[in-house]
Specification:
Blueprint lengths: L1 E6 L2 E6 L11 H10 L3 E7 L5 H12 L6 H22 L7 E8 L3 E8 L23 H8 L2 E6 L5 E8 L3
Antiparallel strand pairs: 1-2, 2-3, 3-4, 4-5, 5-7, 6-7
């Protein structure tokens, strides 16, 4: 069964194998209940910096189910936060009428995170980390993402969305 949860800035589509539970205002409780019944969670948010906390909360909830160390969990959450921050700033140009769709699959051997946005299409060749020898603030997001995740793939979907797929292998 598929259920939608909606409030002013948040939509989540979640798959459930047992039954639909009504929405509770407790985001953490809701995500825990939804996740226990599913290995797949989707989140749609407006492209606005205030939604980064919601994304980090969801990532914390999902990654806590893995055997990764606290340091690794924090790094994964940071990588996803950096990806979403870049989308808000560069792809969506701080336009909160645009959306970010986060899809998280927790598998036995990997954590697979896909992020789609309906911002300005970009060329894959345009994505470059800055020279790490430069001493200046900002510009480290792509480097962080590539260092933390085992696989990072940027693409444009046939429907015209930007997509980043990040995979972190899980060791048993």
């Amino acid at each position: 069964m598929v259920g939608w949860v909606i409030d002013k800035h948040y939509q989540a589509l979640y798959t459930r194998s047992i039954r639909f539970f009504p929405w509770t205002q407790q985001f953490k409780v809701f995500m825990a209940v939804a996740f226990m019944e599913s290995e797949h969670v989707n989140l749609r948010v407006a492209s606005h910096p205030e939604n980064l906390a919601r994304i980090r909360n969801l990532m914390t909830e999902v990654t806590s189910k893995t055997s990764l160390s606290q340091e690794e969990l924090g790094s994964i959450i940071l990588a996803v936060d950096e990806a979403c921050s870049n989308i808000i700033k560069h792809s969506c140009k701080n336009d909160d009428t645009r959306t970010i769709d986060l899809s998280i699959h927790l598998k036995a051997n990997a954590l697979v995170i896909s992020i789609l946005d309906d911002g300005i299409l970009f060329g894959i060749d345009e994505l470059k980390s800055r020279d790490l020898r430069e001493v200046k603030p900002g510009g480290m997001g792509l480097h962080i993402i590539k260092q933390v995740m085992d696989t990072v793939v940027y693409s444009c979907t046939p429907e015209g969305f930007n997509k980043i797929k990040m995979i972190k292998k899980l060791v048993s």
